[in-house]
Amino acid sequence: MEIPSVGTVVIVGFGLVLSILVLLVFILSLQGRFFKSVDKNKVAKAEKVVAKAAVVPVPAAAAAPAPYVEPGIPEEVVVAIAAAIAAMEGGSNYTLRSLTRKKDGRNPWSVAATLSYTQPF
Fold it and tell me: Is the dihedral of CA 83, 89, 91, 94 positive or negative?
């Protein structure tokens, strides 16, 4: 049995790796198309449900009391935090009752990094 030359092994190896990569790209693009169509179907169903739901007038709620804000926190920061909470909650179904600085000595960026790296897929 004859041993193949180095050039033949390299060319076959590159060809095999390239063909597997093309196959993986094709499979992943098919998955993307499938999940996009599933998401579109979910959105369409949700829109139909919302359209069928009767609009019930909500009585005007009394104005919420002003939140307790620790001295030293600017009003712009309070407004930005309240807007971020409203955006995360998807509406105005919240009340900001107080705003104080965190007493822990840990850096918030390190906490965010820890949460990001330890979050499950």
Answer: negative
